[in-house]
């Protein structure tokens, strides 16, 4: 779980200061999904793992309920722990995204809450999705490459596409030796010192 923090981003070409994230709740699995998504997902073979996961993660459930019931003023009070002079009128509440938490069956625990990110694909790659936590900057590229490789293997096999990928990601499909790593580390240090 990501804890509240200040974050700056460019949104529609304008630099914005964000604070959060705060947990929310929706029975929808997608932002534009159906309010019945959660209820339709409950089946006779997954109700037990869902209940066991709920029980095993009671402190997390209590935290999430607390987060969902926070008012705008409560959120502003949290913000003021980071930025004392924050004024209510300068901030707005926005829903940034939607995520569905993964519960996997586990032979020992019955159900286990998954906190990572996982790419799931059908055998033929015709449907591919990203489940779990939203990827951070350190993992987003790797995860996107996994999605492309599973959903569009023909793109990876295309020399033109592969060349473009290697231009964007110089070490894509390349073994990184210690010598190559050290060279790139020095280049990164020089760029960061500018």
Question: Would you give an account of this structure?
Answer:
This protein has 194 residues and is an alpha+beta fold. Helix content is 41%, strand content 18%. The protein contains 8 helices and 6 strands, in the order ββααααββββαααα. It has helices at 37-41, 47-56, 58-68, 72-79, 137-151, 153-157, 159-168, 178-192; strands at 5-11, 14-20, 102-106, 110-114, 117-121, 128-132. The protein has a two-stranded antiparallel sheet with strand order 1-2. Strands 3-4 form a two-stranded antiparallel ribbon. Strands 5-6 form a two-stranded antiparallel ribbon. The longest helix has 15 residues, at 137-151. The chain is globular and about 50 Å long.
What is the count of helical runs? Answer: 8
Distance between the termini: 34 Å
Helices and strands: which structural class? alpha+beta
- Can you write the helix and strand succession as a string? EEHHHHEEEEHHHH
Rough outline: globular
Output the strand order for the largest sheet.
1-2
Averaged pLDDT: 85
Uncertain residue ranges:
none
Strand tally: 6
Helix content: 40-55%
Query: Rg from C-alpha positions?
Result: 21 Å
Strand proportion, as a percent range, falls in 15-25%
Question: In this structure, how is the largest beta sheet organized?
Answer: 2 strands, antiparallel
Keywords:
single chain; 194 residues; alpha+beta; two-stranded antiparallel sheet; 8 helices; 18% strand
């Amino acid at each position: 779980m990501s804890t509240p923090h200040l974050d700056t981003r460019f949104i529609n070409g304008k630099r914005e200061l964000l604070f959060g994230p705060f947990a929310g709740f929706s029975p929808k699995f997608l932002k534009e999904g159906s309010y019945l998504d959660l209820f339709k997902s409950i089946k006779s073979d997954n109700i037990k793992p869902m209940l066991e996961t709920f029980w095993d993660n009671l402190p997390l459930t209590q935290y999430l309920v607390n987060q969902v019931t926070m008012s705008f003023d409560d959120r502003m009070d949290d913000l003021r722990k980071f930025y004392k002079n924050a004024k209510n009128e300068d901030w707005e509440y926005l829903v940034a995204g939607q995520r569905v938490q993964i519960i996997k069956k586990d032979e020992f625990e019955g159900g286990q809450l998954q906190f990572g990110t996982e790419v799931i694909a059908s055998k033929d790659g015709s449907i591919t999705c990203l489940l779990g936590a939203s990827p951070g900057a350190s993992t987003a590229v790797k995860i996107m490459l996994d999605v492309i490789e599973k959903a569009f293997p023909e793109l990876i096999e295309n020399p033109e596409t592969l060349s473009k990928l290697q231009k964007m990601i110089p070490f894509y499909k390349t073994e990184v030796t210690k010598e190559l790593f050290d060279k790139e580390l020095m280049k990164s240090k020089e760029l960061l010192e500018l």
